[in-house]
Write a structure and sequence with these properties.
The complex is a heterodimer of chains A (261) and B (385). Chain A contains six helices and twelve strands. Classes of the chains: A alpha/beta (261), B alpha+beta (385).
Chain lengths: 261, 385
């Protein structure tokens, strides 16, 4: 089974400080790491390969130094890497990023599954996974916490929900995003680290992947950042249990106590 | 201090450190408390190719030497000596095959050691044969194409968990020490069972059991080298592995320093952090100086061995002796600095102190190391005359 893993190089947010005046991240001097959720994606791809054979390819889009994220992926055991890097990609929002990634994936061609982390810890949008799937015209399933079964062109997996989980069946190829509950990522191997050290990666440019120049980079990005602010915290929640009658009685009592009814 | 490690040695150190931080530190207290063998960690160590480290490339390994092994052992020991002992004992058990095994034996057994599929144990000690290895009573008798083993080995690290056991047994009692031989015994061989798991003061993550041989038949091809070579193989094995025990001492000492200084920085008494008191400062200064001296000695001896030295008994005994005596002192001082907290199981210092004690005892008690060193000195002085 051939698997493509989408990885993103992000600033190590445990090291990031915030500029209190502009409310933006101070990225200078902050070390770059593989987006932590992507490490679960890589681990799951490697486990599927160990079980079903095939090949794992890690793909990233970013500046030339993003090759470090790919090297880390190689040290963990992925077979092949693709770096999408071109000045024309600069300034891309999730839409333009997804377009570039989908074009890169098309060029790679033969694949059964694309895995990505549920979101990146810098942007936190969780949009690139679903958008890329949409552009590739393949099914998308988010928040996978367990892959139960892969058989032929079909996969059964558990999708983590706020309360419990769904069991989802999808045809393959598909794109899934994974949550941290899915596995415990391995540490790199020495042989992998040695291989990564001498790895030479030739970047694919916008032309290489046949990208429409109006759909990439800043020009291809419909998003406009108007304001950045932290989301308001979720309020207190309570899940009622018992029979319907009990729940209704309980709810009515609560609402009355708050003078809402 | 910079020990002029190569880029590759630094890579190895960083990888071992990553395993220590990500996989060992979060579970070490639980492993200690529950006397629990660290199977998942051993899997990570295998996956990271750290078992391949000390196996020659021809047998699926990476062909690294003593220094690299010491670096890994030191990093693991910083986090948990029980885990480090489990790993290092596998190397100890493999040395007889590495040093004296036939080409066939190496081809048959080493690739699985390199991949981490086979954990290895070394079986020398018995109830009546500790420091005095000539007291061995386990026997091996050649019958046709098989050796028949009978007897009981005691306090064997990785007992029950290892797939391969290198065993020293007597093949000819009349020849005294020259009547011992070394064998490879695979787990699952009929007549080979394990006694109870020992309940130890420290290194509780490691498994320590008896090995019981009751008419255990092994193919005669499992004899290492020749009959009568058992003691020489055992002694050369211990010579090779002892430096690693010194590295364990350095690791656990450094781990204890790191824990106690980060505690002391935040521990306020008389209105100031206790690190501002000279009494505490001087303790730290001594602890780090001794640990650094031990590290320098361990690395030097490892490099000496790796340079192809033939006789390094004295050197490796000094590395073991000094590194482990330092570890006992430094871990005890770390507990002292941390005071009541240091004595509590909420902090790792007390575990480090309990763990460190074994280093002065196993792989040749430190009194035996002094014998080895002094004997070699006297021999040299006699030759010089």
């Amino acid at each position: 089974m051939n698997i493509i893993v989408l990885v993103k190089q992000v600033p190590d947010t445990s090291e990031v400080k915030i500029n209190r005046e502009t409310n933006t991240l101070i990225r200078d001097g902050v070390p770059s790491i593989i987006n932590p959720y992507d490490r679960y994606a890589i681990e799951e791809a490697l486990r599927l390969r160990e079980k079903h054979g095939g090949k794992v390819t890690a793909v990233t889009m970013g500046p030339p130094q993003a090759v470090e994220a790919l090297k880390e992926a190689v040290s963990l055991g992925v077979d092949d890497v693709v770096l999408l890097s071109d000045r024309a990609f600069a300034g891309a929002d999730t839409w333009a990023t997804s377009y570039a990634l989908s074009q890169g994936i098309r060029k790679i061609g033969d694949f059964d599954l694309v895995i990505a982390g549920k979101q990146a810890i810098d942007g936190d949008t969780a949009q690139v996974g679903p958008e890329t799937a949409d552009m590739l015209g393949i099914p998308f399933v988010a928040y996978i916490r367990k892959i139960e079964q892969v058989e032929g062109k079909k996969m059964v997996a558990e999708r983590l929900m706020d309360e419990g989980y769904d069991v989802v069946e999808t045809s393959l190829p598909a794109l899934i995003t994974v949550v941290k509950e899915i596995n415990e990522p391995r540490v790199p191997s020495l042989k992998g680290k040695m291989k990564a050290k001498s790895l030479k990666v030739a970047a694919w440019s916008a032309a290489d992947i046949g990208a429409d120049e109006n759909k990439i980079g800043l020009r291809g990005s419909p998003t406009q950042v108007v304001r950045i602010f932290p989301p308001s915290p979720r309020g207190q929640r309570e899940i009622l249990s018992g029979s319907v009658e009990e729940q209704v009685a309980h709810l009515a009592k609560k609402l009355k106590a708050q003078s809402l009814i | 201090m910079d020990y002029l490690l190569t880029e590759e040695q630094i890579m190895i150190r960083d990888l071992a450190r990553q395993i220590a931080v990500e996989k060992i530190v979060p579970v070490r207290a639980e492993l200690d408390e529950q006397n629990k063998f660290p199977r998942d960690i051993m899997k990570s160590i295998a996956q990271a190719d750290l078992y391949a480290l000390f196996i020659p490339e021809a047998y699926g390994g990476l062909g690294k030497k003593s220094l690299e092994l010491c670096i890994v052992v030191e990093e693991l020991s910083k986090a948990c000596l029980g885990v480090a002992t489990t790993y290092a004992s596998s190397a100890l058990g493999t040395y007889p095959i590495l040093l004296y095994g036939s080409e066939e034996q190496k081809k048959k057994f080493l690739p699985d050691v390199a991949s981490g599929k086979s954990l290895v144990a070394f079986g020398l000690t018995e109830a009546n044969a500790g420091s005095d290895a000539s007291g061995i009573q386990t026997t091996a008798k050649l019958e046709g194409n098989e050796y028949v083993l009978n007897g009981t080995k005691q306090w064997i690290t990785n007992g029950g968990e290892a797939e391969l056991y290198t065993i020293i047994a007597i093949t000819d009692k009349s020849k005294g020490p020259r009547g011992a031989s070394a064998f490879i015994v695979e787990k699952g061989t009929p007549g080979f069972t394990f006694g109870k798991k020992e309940n130890k003061m420290g290194i509780r993550a490691s498994s320590t059991t008896e090995l019981i041989f009751n008419n255990c038949r092994i193919p005669k091809e499992n004899l290492i080298s020749k009959q009568g070579m058992g003691f020489i193989i055992a002694m050369k094995t211990l010579d090779s592995s002892r430096t690693g025990v010194g590295a364990m001492g350095v690791g656990v000492a450094q781990g204890a320093i790191d824990e106690s200084i980060s505690f002391a920085k935040n521990r306020v008494q008389f209105g100031q952090p206790i690190t501002s008191f000279q009494a505490i400062q001087h303790m730290f200064a001594d602890m780090q100086t001794q640990t650094e001296a031990a590290r320098a000695l361990v690395y030097s001896v490892a490099r000496f061995i790796d340079s192809g030295a033939k006789d390094f008994s004295r050197a490796s005994a000094m590395a073991k002796l000094f590194g482990t005596d330092v570890s006992m002192k430094v871990t005890t001082d770390a507990v002292q600095i941390m005071g009541g907290s240091g004595y509590m199981k909420e902090y790792p210092a007390e575990k480090m102190m309990r763990d460190a004690k074994i280093l002065q005892i196993f792989e040749g008690a430190n009194q035996i190391q002094r014998n080895v060193i002094a004997l070699d000195m006297v021999r040299e002085a006699t030759r010089a005359k």
